[in-house]
Design brief:
Elements (H helix, E strand, L loop, with lengths): L1 H30 L7 H16 L4 E6 L12 E4 L6 H5 L7 E5 L8 H8 L2 E3 L4 H16 L4 E3 L17 H9 L3 E7 L15 E7 L13 H26 L1
Parallel strand pairs: 1-7, 2-5, 2-6, 3-4, 3-5
Antiparallel strand pairs: 6-7
Helix pairs in contact: 1-2, 1-4, 2-4, 5-6
Length: 249
Amino acid sequence: MRRALLGLYTYFEFFFLAVVFVPILGSVALLFRSEPGRRTRGRWMRRFGRLTSRLTPMWRFSTDGSGPADIRQRPYVVVSNHESTADPFLLSYFPWDMRWVGKEELWRLPLLGWLLKFGGDIPLRRGDRESVTKMMKICKETLAEGVPVLLFPEGTRSPDGQLLPFKDGAFRLAIEAGVPIVPVALTGTRSCRPKGSLWFGEARAVARALPAVETKDLSIDDVPILRERVRAMIQAAVDELRLRTQNNT
């Protein structure tokens, strides 16, 4: 009974805050429509993510590490494993701005889609070459304006929490744009809302920013090696975070 009531509260709280933030973000998007990198719009979108998760009694989120010291002045490609629809809320706790790449279907949803559009994030139609080309172009423009870009290289949420194979796109982007990669490992969010579930669960989740990986002097031929190196870093950190969580319970 308690869990059901908390789940209903979480739905209501998310809906209420989305209604409140849509006109706020819409106004910010209008006022700052010409701002390079859409920084102000992004900051307001992350405020929404942090506030709605903090008001959810079922979730306890934290971050481990604050990323490279110059991440507020220098662009990075941020890559993270993907466990749940709760991941963006957890990643909003990092103290730096970034634009997100997400599946285009989210932009069609009422409220959430409007927030994503006003927040300046970047849609991608999976499997569509034209959409991929457009996404890469926007990402490169965003990086050139000094703003990090976040992608989930698995391409979709893991159904069981185990890392899926990484796709090349994020690593190709980093090499072509000449920017470093910040790997992020997260765990715990799958219990917040597993793939295929419409209900919320109670969980503690943590995201850890790992040391940056330089792409200087790398070519497109190095994408597979870079991809697997970053995946191994994330896998090792996920395993460590899960073991730490088990030992603390």
